Amino acid sequence: MYSLHKFAGLALLAWLPLSGASAAAQRVISIDPARADKPGFMVIIDEPGHYQLAGNLKVADPNTTAIEINADNVTLDLHGYAIQGPTRCQQLPAPCWPLGGGNGIHAVNRSHITIRNGIVQGMGNYGIYLETNSASLDHVVVSRNGRGGAVLFGGAISNSAAENNGGDGIFGIDLKVSRNAMRGNQHFGLAAYAQSSFSNNRLSANNGNAAQTNLKSAASAGNTCNASACP
Description:
By secondary structure, this protein is mostly beta strands. Helices cover 0% and strands 44% of the residues.
């Protein structure tokens, strides 16, 4: 298994407790990483439910999306595995390459989408792109994705890491961002707008060591930017 605890980026998260979420009462639908549902998409989820990745999902083409969610009320547990694309971001601020239109996990006009417990790296576009007003990411690493780490239009991100992405580490609208680590991203570690808030996050070495986020942090919020309290 591609263990979360063995992934280098998760050293940032050693200070975080593991998620206690449970879906014991819900049937778990296993996702075979060898699936190829249709050209351009490896896995398509069309029904509500609790899904669990059964192994590392490897994407060879930067224009291919690994998992497309076309249903509401979906929980996707990566189960400690990784979605691995072909893109490399080894010498930022030089562009990541190859770029493409493929996302690790993608959903548009959906509600109540939860992603947890895994890694999304090396995608041609974004690691995770959820155009939904009620998304949740927990214990997820988005790393070295071509145009950015995670994009959410409403929802919460917690206990996660965004690092070395070719854009913003986390971008979104109406977000609650807490207990995350964001480092080494080409643009902001966190770019969030409208009614967004953030607390107890660690941001470092983003945006060429200029501003780490566009948000203003209250002194009591517990956010650090390059090891000092965020302004």
